[in-house]
Amino acid sequence: MKIGFLVNPVAGMGGKVALKGTDGEDILRRAIELGAVPSANSRACTALAIFREAASDHQFYAPTGQMGGRLLSESGLVYETVLKPSEKTTSEDTKKVVSLMLEAGVEAIIFAGGDGTARDVCSIVGDRIPVIGIPAGVKIHSAVYAKRPKDAGMMVKNLLLGKVKRYVLAEVMDLDEDAFRNNIVRAQLYGYMKVPDDREFMQDRKSGSSSSDESERLDIAAYVIKNMQENEIYLIGSGSTTYSIIQSLNIEGTLLGVDAVLNESAAGKDMTEKEIIETLSAFEKGKRHLVITVIGGQGHIFGRGNQQLSPEVLRMIPKENITVIANSSKMSDLFGKSLIADTGDTGLDEDLKGYIPVITGFGKKIMAKIG
Fold it and tell me: How many separate helices (H) and strands (E) can be counted in the chain?
């Protein structure tokens, strides 16, 4: 089987530095200035390690260097070069690589990136051949990605072993990043790509909250605030449910970033990973708290739009001090599926597994499994 392999090396760099993405040259430059480091190749490597054994009988096509070729070479896989990109890559490189892969007759494309990458791939491929996305971006609303890099690895392994029998068309979604940075969620459907029909490993597209959930969100916020302890620090994660806490306290915060609350007052707004670590360091471990919500339709609690909550940050907070909140309709829409921690650290993901209470109203809780 002829397989295309592609990595967007700058995907995900804006996450830890609170930039909500890296689409656009100016934002990428800003991310680098703030100390962002590439992570896409690391996440692609996690997937590659899983499907490596099944790959030896197949022909791979990839660009050289950081766009995929280096990873294949390091794993001992021989590949055909489709492009030798410059060190500084752009979305045009992605599109050109995909076009050359199609000319070479690839039968499937594996790519690592975020929604912007999926959009670029879709603009060339459409629904002509199957794709599998390795999640490596900041915002990953598109349903063409696996739930985690290790899930992408399993999905590719099944593909290479001939175990994938059915395919479906999955949505390619992307957000307006400029609007996103101004607390406005403006998602657009850009097309569909063909992916394996597998709900175990592939994620669903993100679903948003409805206005009818507002009353429930306010009840949840009131309950969280009522139970806040004096002189203890609370990180408030991104999302409309968590933002209701900020609104109820009538303090400054951000809908789509990480804020901090101390004694019902603002202690940090739209914080980077570095700022979060500095803030937490001023408090004893038992006095550090985190309030997060669930990504609707997907079930992620870490690794989607909140990369500021890095493994280093999460290890500073006791597991029992992590509070998950979600309205009841969001939990019902998951149909009993496990919540997902995709922190980028497989050991930490394992540590986070187990059952956790999810607050769904004032004094209302349900038990959910982090799997």
Answer: 13, 16
Task: Give me the torsion for CA of 100, 198, 200, 63, rounded to 10°.
Answer: -10
Task: Compute the distance between CA of residue 143 and CA of residue 298 in angstroms, rounded to an integer.
Answer: 9
pLDDT of residue 315: 98
Do 135 and 342 form a contact (C-beta atoms < 8 A)? yes
Measured distance between the N- and C-terminal CA atoms of the chain, rounded to whole angstroms: 32
Distance from C-alpha of 272 to C-alpha of 180, rounded to nearest angstrom: 16
Task: Name 30's Cβ contacts closer than 8 Å, sequence gap at least 6.
Answer: 19
CB count in 10 Å sphere of residue 73: 14
C-beta separation of 271 from 308 below 8 A? yes
Number of Cβ within 10 Å of residue 102's Cβ equals: 17
Strands (E), the chain: 2-7, 59-63, 79-83, 108-113, 131-135, 167-175, 187-196, 233-236, 259-262, 265-268, 288-293, 300-302, 322-325, 340-341, 354-361, 364-370
pLDDT in tens, 107-148: 999 999 999 999 999 999 999 999 999 999 887 889 999 999
- For the chain, what are the domain ranges? 2-196, 211-370
DSSP 8-state secondary structure symbol assigned to residue 321: G
- Tokens representing residue 173 in the block: 């979604």
The dihedral built from the CA positions of residue 123, 125, 126 and 132, taken in this order, carries a sign that is negative
pLDDT classification of 274: cutoffs 50, 70, 90? very high
Domain 2-196 has CATH 1.10.357.20: no
Q: Is the dihedral of CA 279, 282, 283, 285 positive or negative?
A: positive
pLDDT value, residue 135:
96
Q: How far is it, in rounded angstroms, from Cα 23 to Cα 254?
A: 20
Instruction: Please give the Cα distance from 279 to 303 (Å, whole number).
Output: 21
Q: Alpha helix locations (H) across 89-176?
A: 91-103, 115-125, 149-160
174 pLDDT exceeds 70?
Answer: yes
